[in-house]
Every structure is written in structure tokens, then in C-alpha cells.
Amino acid sequence: MSNDVTLMSTTRSEWIKFRSVRSTIMGFLFTFVLTIGLGALITVAIRGHWNQTGVADRLTFDAVSTSLAGTYFASFAVGVIGILFITSEYSSGSIRTTLAAVPNRVRLMLGKLIVLALSMIIVSEIVCFITFLMGQAIYSGVVPTASLSDGAVLRSVLLAGVYLTLLSVLGFAIGIILRQSGACISVFTSILLIIPLIIFFLPQSWQTSVSKYEPSALGRAMMSTSPPSADFGAWTALMVLVIYVIIVLGVGTTMLVRRDA
Amino acid sequence: MLKIDHLTKHYKDTVALNDLSFEVKPGVVTGFLGPNGSGKSTTMRIILGLDHANKGQATINGTNYADLKAPLREVGALLDAKAVHPGRTARNHLRSLAASNQIKMSRVEEVLQFAGISSVANKKVGGYSLGMSQRLGIAAALLGDPQVLLFDEPVNGLDPEGIRWIREFFRSLANEGRTVFVSSHLMSEMAVSADQIIVIGRGKFITQGSVDDLTETAAGSVLVRSTDPQKLTTVLEGLRGVVEDVNDHAMSVGGLTSDQIGRAAFDAGVTILELTPQRASLEEVFMDLTADAVEYGGSTLESTHDE
Asked: pTM of the prediction?
């Protein structure tokens, strides 16, 4: 029947919810400011110090990933957007109203996922392309620039937006499992900051085999035109990150279905 | 029709519901009465598919809630009025619910109007008083024009005018042939607003009936005025009556019906001046029925002062 609850109607409902709270708007604002603002600061700094930059550094210089460096900071903003999209339902208790309207919990999860992933990919790609173009304009004339007509460059900029989107979905998936905003933000931050730190203190031989699996290293590989040899290639890194997200989302959805709301 | 069928629910090591069964019929307001912690909210949550029962099931016209195609069009529920994202406006809250069940957006305006919150519909719900939140909850429950309505403690936080409004509202819903199921821990509220009452305690079914049924089955007393209270007391106590509060003219007699008392007085040659059965209030009945089933009972504090 045309009046039933469907994935489409659930997605429309979740879209109304997503856009009607301030945390989403603020999250996107932070994503813009952090990526573009820090991108501008970093590229201006690099341009200013280019004369003092050594030959070795000039040879490994990556005009793409340096201009997109702000995304590492924006990853916390997008994570929080994903986390709050589900945890705010638990903190306010509105999850009960939501599940009364959409009793099929897998459908609810998919509806939220579609809204989050679609809006994140659009916003992230816009942000990443603006940041990249702005960075190259700042470099231009002093520092060697990259052009989108180069396939590897275009891939890096595109995957930067995909990286932010996947991190947001990862936050959402953690949110389904833990249900508490504070706990989720701690875990999410630990994944991005503490894990690299732990790996740093591991013996050198372990580091080289382990560090490439760590999420921020995957991001680095996805955004770089020529990833360091210790990292995965860009597409492999993307695949590994997608697998992470699917696993966490799968665990979360199973728990969502089984638990009392 | 709402059917609760042998529901059992454990939370860790506490038993919230213990083989609970009953039916709620359309066309009347059914009160769901029990002390705090007796399992009313748990029952409501299981009906809505929010909590999973360990045994048994709850069905709406024969269907599990989770299997309803468009649940808001069949069941409207108000569980916790404050359970709305505080940063969202009432209108957006209702629009998101309407969208999920493919309900026309014009219906949102209708229920806002009905609940009397149209003028604040664009304000964030976080700033609402409890009374306004209750009204929003009622608007949400009515959104899909459902045949079955559930309300968990709906009068909490309402002012007297709001309480009267909600009573009339329940009545009109029932008169339209809908199933109206209202929980409360306040027997006085149920006595005036419900036709049928289901009483539970500690997750178990205790009794079910109309307000009249429940008060009739309870042991009431009879007020007796006679020309010779002393003699009548002796006679009635001989019949195993419990005679209390004897004064010059009147006394209260328990354990005997007014018929029995009248006959006994006639046989003993005592003239009866007044014989009035005292109906127990629903409140007394409720206290009686649930005395053993109160999870958190209080006791009277003894005064440390000498009067």
C-alpha cells in the first residue's frame, strides 16, 4: 500500500530531523571553517617558508595533501555530527517515539545512514574542492601546484571527501553501539589520536606492519597523490576503511535490533 | 482491540511482568492502575515493540506492533511527554513523524490546532512547560488518526483546566469507538475518567472491572442508627459482625449486609432509624488490593515529641 512506512518515507522523516537541529548546522560550519581555514593557514605558511625548504623536502612535497591538511581536524567535527545524529535520540528519549513510528530497526538505521552519508558526501566534497583550489591559488607562483586534470590529484581530492564521510558514518555506528554522546566522542577521539600514539611506542618492526591499518593513516593514504611506501595505496586504504565501517555498523545494528529501546 | 497475552518480562534479576494477561476493548476508557513500579510502563513499552518480552505477546487487533504497516495510523501513544529533542520545534517534530508514516502535512496543522499549541509550534520544545509538552505528546498521538490510543500517566504536570480538558478528550475518543488505554497510579483520577479499570501489582494481574464493580466487591461497612445501640451491638457481634465507632445513636458495622442487619434488629426488637451502606471509595479498594504488591512502601514516622 502506498501509505505504509517504507525506506523512502523513513529517509524523508530522518532528513527532517537531521536538518532541524542546531548540532547538524554547527557541525557543518565547523567542517567548513576547520578544513578551509586551516587549509589557508597551512598553505600560506608553506608558501612563506618555501625559500628555506630543503631539496629533499621539495622532492617529496605533495601539493594536494598539504592543502587538504585541515581535514584531519575536520574529522572530529564530522564524527560528532554522525554521533549526535543517533545519541541525541537516546539522551532526549525521542528514540521511543522514533521507533514507535518506524518499528523496523534495520529500516530506521538505513534511513539515518542514507541521510547522513548523502549530506556528508555532498558537503565534504564541496569543502574539499574549495580547499584544494584555494590552496593551489595560494601556492601559485612560488610553490609547485597540482592540477585536477591529473588523475591522481583528482582522486586524492575526491577521496578526501569520502574519508570525511566515512568517518562521520563511523561516528554514527559507534553512536548506535554506545548510545551516549560523551562516551562516543571519547572513543572516536581515541581512535583518531590515541591509537597512532600507541603505535608510535611499539617496536619499529611492528610499527611498519601495523600503522598502515590505523584510520588516520588510511586517510593520509587516500588523500595523498604518492603515499609513503609504508602506507596502503589509495584504493586499498579506502577498502580497508569501508570494511571497518561496515563491521562497526553491523555490530551496532545487531545490538539495535536485539536491545530494548 | 488490545490484547495482552501472558506477558513476562525480566530486567536482569527483577521480574517486571509476571504472566500478565488482559484485554482492552474499544468504545470505553480503560484505566490501567497500579502502584509505581508495578509494570504499567513496561507493559506500554512492550505493546509498542520498544521492549522485548521474555514470554507472551501483545497484539493490536491480532497483529504484533512490529508487523503493523503504518503503526502511527493504527496506534497513537504518549509515553513520556519530555522525550522530544529539545532543540527541535514542535512543528518539525510532528512533520518528521508524519513523513515516516506518509501522513499528510496538513494533518500536522490540524493536531497542533487541536492540542492548542499552534501559536508555539515554531518554538523549540526544550522551552516548553510540562503541560505544553503533554499537549504536544497528545498531538503526536493523534497524528495518524489511530483507533487505539495509549497514554502513560497523562495527567502528570497538567493544571486543573488541562486535566478537565484531557478527561473530556478521552471520553470523546471512546465515544467515537476508539480503544483508549490510560495508565495512572492515581486511583482518584481513574475513578472519574475511566469506565473500565485493570489493576496490576508487581507485574501481576489483580483484578478488572468497572469502577462500580470494584467498589461493590470490596467489603463496605453499613452505618446503623437505632434506638438501642448497646443491645444491637451484642446481637450483631453474635452474628460475627464487626461493630465500630459506637456512640449514642450511630455505629458502623462491617462484615454484614444491610439486609442481615435489618432482620437481626427486627428479631431482637430494636427499632432501626437509619441503615446506610457505606460504599468504599475506589481509593480504599485500590489500597486493599495492592497492599501486598507495593514495591516501595512507606511507613509512618513516629513522632519524637510528646503531645
From this structure: 0.87
